[in-house]
Specification:
It contains ten helices and ten strands. By secondary structure, it is α/β, with parallel strands linked by helices. The longest helix has 26 residues. The radius of gyration is 19 Å and the shape is globular.
Length: 280
Amino acid sequence: MYFRSILVPIEQHDLMHSTLETALLLARKFDSYIEGFALHVATTAAFATADSGGVLIAGLEREIAETAKRTRSVFENFMREHGVPYGDATTTLSSNWLEGAPQGDDFVGSYGRVFDVIVLAKPGRNPRGSQMSTLEAALFESGRPVLLAPPSPRPQMGTNVMIAWNCSTEQIHAIAFAMPILKRASRVIVLTVEGGAAVPGPTGEQLCRYLQLSGVPAKPLTVGLDGRLTGEAVLAHASALNCDLLIKGAYTQSRLRQFIFGGTTRYILSNALLPVFMAH
């Protein structure tokens, strides 16, 4: 897989520009095709939260249509300003818009199955970023990786990479999806947080040996918690080492457990300032 096709759900929130910039950084590395579509809440869901009667449906549908036009303009203007050719998928950098996408987050998970990666903003309260339900649909329903954009655009991505190794199946899935990026990186740090959240499995050194056999310049690094949460330790070392991408398996613990008690995935989703490549 070489990330030849990238799906970007387009919304109206503060992080959309950074999301498109992040998608373009990846696309330029692999001469990818970027497809956008208007993501908005389903009419039925919006109507279910309304206090008025069915007379609101027509107004909601008009609002959804107008939102779709605005989001299309955001996408097309960005691609035009950055010199990305517009049209059907090709073997070179290109972009296109999907007209008439169904409403709701479910479409992100189902349609995302025919793309190499889905690019989203970090989840947050509107208008700051994407909804958590959008990320979960992408992670759990598409079978594809998700690239989360940072709050602010980065000048480069995938040159100095950190893998947050916790020995889990979810983490090795993320690594497998990220291999084209890892093979092109100048430096790859396999970080093990001693005493942190992890499951039984291979050591960081054993993962490095596996990656090195595939041509990845991986080096192990073991650090302590030093009174911090696992996610806090990961992000602190990613910042200290000037990493421009974090590879992270998503939800080694259940979503319910992370929601109630917190967890590494939840902490990183809330606090990461660099792009995060995730898979479940």
